Structure formats: structure tokens, C-alpha cells
Amino acid sequence: MRLFNATRLLPLYIALLCSLLTTPAFAETIRDVVYGHKDGMAMVLDVYKPASNANGAGVAYMISGGWMSSEGGK
Fold this sequence. Notes:
Layout (H helix, E strand, L loop, with lengths): L9 H13 L4 E12 L2 E10 L24
Antiparallel strand pairs: 1-2
């Protein structure tokens, strides 16, 4: 039996920590922005824009199963 290697989750922990530390207290949320189309379906994303103190940095946080998603799988 293989022991679970916690270091495999280190990038996830770092990304989560960074997102918690850099999330603005007040942000404008723009939902379902279409960035492309595939097989007749719109590919969408949500944009969170800080209300103030924007420094020009951005974070792309994506959740998907091997870059494949099913319709209505929210």
C-alpha cells in the first residue's frame, strides 16, 4: 500500500493561501463572461475586479476534470 504523499498537494495549498491573502475585500463581480465557444457551447468565466488599490496583477484559478466539463455541471 502506498502512503499518501502530502507534498503533491503543496501547489494547491500555496494557491489557496495566495488567493486568501490577495482577495480584495470589495470587488466587482462580472459573471459568465464568454471567452470562447466549443462544440456549440459557450465557455465562460467569472471576473473579480478590485474596487480600489489594483496593482495590475492577476490570478487565473481554474477547476475542471482534465479540462473536460459536462453541460450544467456547476
